[in-house]
Specification:
By secondary structure, the protein is of the alpha+beta class. The protein contains 4 helices and 7 strands; from the N terminus they run H-H-E-E-E-E-E-H-E-E-H. About 40% of the residues lie in helices and about 20% in strands.
């Protein structure tokens, strides 16, 4: 019997079959690729944590380097807050994950603190959609390098975070500030807000650790 391909029944049936087939293909792809994608994200996260302590590791060696150098610290009663510790190369560092919102989407990163829980040893930042050549410059060494040696707490023990100042050299001599990216002031400020807001969540724990350090 000849099928009338112009009939409503044929068109509806054909469309339904195609929807089912496409859905099945997509579901299968998600099942197959999901674990691979998750593994890639986890590897990128570990690579970023290592980068925050100054360890530049080839992709193939990230898992090994992370296992050897990074330990996750449990924070009592802190819910989902995460904290990492490193004793690589004889240097004791604590790594705090950061998360915030940039001009066009999420921004995130890691800040490595020295044993005094105050001095920044290194940072890495990343983003989802900041403008190339402008806000996206938060990932460059020219910007991140400014944070090394800066202080999160003032002389009175108050959490100040890191202020981003507009103008080349504006932060010179200021232990609590860096220069903003030229043309990327909004994203630079977003980094400032991200650091301050995230560290505020860890403030109680960090202050306790700083007091313990001072008591030793």
């Amino acid at each position: 019997m000849k099928v009338n391909k112009n009939s409503s029944v044929y068109i509806i049936t054909y469309a339904t079959v195609m929807v089912v087939v496409v859905a099945a293909v997509l579901a299968t792809a998600a099942m197959v690729l999901g674990p691979v994608q998750n593994a890639n994200v986890e590897r990128e996260t570990k690579g970023a944590i290592l980068a925050s302590i100054g360890a530049s590791v080839p992709t193939a060696e990230i898992e090994k380097a992370y296992a050897e150098n990074i330990t996750e610290i449990a924070i009592p009663g802190a819910g989902d807050l995460k904290l990492y510790e490193s004793r690589a190369n004889g240097k004791h560092l604590y790594i705090v994950p950061l998360a915030g919102s940039g001009l066009w989407g999420p921004i995130w990163g890691y800040v490595a603190l020295e044993g005094d829980w105050n001095t920044i040893s290194g940072v890495v930042f990343d983003h989802k959609g900041e403008t190339p050549g402008l806000g996206a410059e938060i990932t460059t060494p020219a910007f991140t390098g400014q944070f090394v040696g800066k202080k999160l707490f003032d002389a009175g023990g108050n959490l100040t975070g890191i202020t981003v100042l507009k103008g080349a050299g504006a932060s010179r001599g200021n232990d609590h500030a860096v220069d903003a990216i030229s043309g990327g002031t909004i994203t630079s400020r977003a980094v400032e807000n991200m650091i301050r807001a995230t560290l505020a969540e860890y403030k109680s724990y960090i202050e306790t650790q700083r007091n313990n350090e001072g008591a030793e």
